[in-house]
Amino acid sequence: MRPSYSVTTSRAVRASLKSLTTPETIRTKILSAFEVAETTDDEKERARQLTFVLVGAGPTGVELAASIAQLVSVTLRKNFRKIEPSKSRIVLLDGGARVLPTFCGIAVAKSGQATDQARR
Question: Of the residues 45, 51, 77, 102, which has the fewest C-beta atoms closer than 10 A?
Answer without folding.
Answer: 102
